[in-house]
Write a structure and sequence with these properties.
By secondary structure, the protein is an alpha/beta fold. It folds into two domains: about 1-120, Rossmann fold (3-Layer(aba) Sandwich), CATH 3.40.50; about 125-225, Arc Repressor Mutant, subunit A. About 45% of the residues lie in helices and about 20% in strands. The strands form three sheets. It has a five-stranded parallel sheet, sandwiched between helices. Strand 6 and strand 7 form a beta hairpin. Helix 2 packs parallel to helix 3 (about 60-70) and helix 6 crosses helix 8 (about 190-205). It is globular, with a radius of gyration of 18 Å. The relative contact order is 0.10.
């Protein structure tokens, strides 16, 4: 599997590249935003590890440009882990967010989780739709519509909403949503909360709507009428 590592810190880039190659990944690198975009076109990586604090074009702008033309999984790598930066990254289409400093083992686990998730999706070819009220999810194309109007969801947002919709009216624990969405256990529930927020915004739902996404304190979320 080919990984594009975009990191301007030479030492960190070399250490991370070494760890990824030991884990069996084919690694190509870039040291700034324009170089990253060039590498994507030339190398066709299957996943992008993207630093936020890059020269010329920062990681947020690179992420935005990638999403304009490619459906490549993106993991943001950054010391900027405040809520505002995390929300911005996910809003632009990032699939995961790893804060610095990070252990190479953790990063490899995140990559493998996304790989497993992608393989599962490619092996499953359902032709049915899931509908909750006026919301419809096309499981084959990963497209969502509400009252016939397309809703632009990231792949991760779609998976979270899919899990909720498939279990309409039932409470889904945080841990199950995190594992289904990210593909591994022990994720950060606060990131799940961020994605739920974005899904509500895109669907124009409020937590108090009878058929909306409701938070069940200390347990999880439910969607649709109970």
């Amino acid at each position: 599997m080919k990984v594009l590592l975009v990191e301007d810190d030479l030492d960190l880039r070399e250490i991370t590249m070494y760890a990824l190659r030991r884990a069996g990944f084919n690694v190509v690198t870039a040291s700034d935003g324009p170089h990253a975009l060039t590498q994507i076109e030339a190398e066709h990586p299957e996943i992008v590890l993207l630093d936020v604090n890059l020269p010329t074009l920062d990681g947020f702008e690179v992420c935005r440009r990638i999403r304009q033309g490619y459906d490549i999984p993106i993991i943001m790598l950054t010391a900027r882990t405040g809520d505002e930066d995390v929300i911005r990254g996910f809003h632009l289409g990032a699939d995961d967010y790893v804060g610095k400093p990070f252990s190479p083992t953790q990063l490899v686990a995140r990559i493998k989780a996304i790989v497993r998730r992608g393989r599962t999706d490619s092996l499953t070819q359902p032709d049915a739709e899931v509908a909750v009220g006026d919301l419809k999810l096309d499981l084959q194309s990963h497209r969502a519509t509400k009252s016939g109007v397309p809703i632009q969801l990231t792949p991760l947002e779609f998976r979270i909403l899919h899990m909720l919709a498939m279990n309409e009216g039932r409470v889904i624990p945080y841990s199950r949503l995190v594992e289904y969405g990210w593909g591994y256990e022990g994720g950060d529930p606060s990131l799940l909360k961020t994605h739920i927020y974005h899904i509500r915004q895109k669907l124009r739902l409020t937590p108090k709507e009878s058929d909306g996404i409701r938070a069940i304190p200390r347990i999880g979320y439910s969607f649709g009428r109970s």
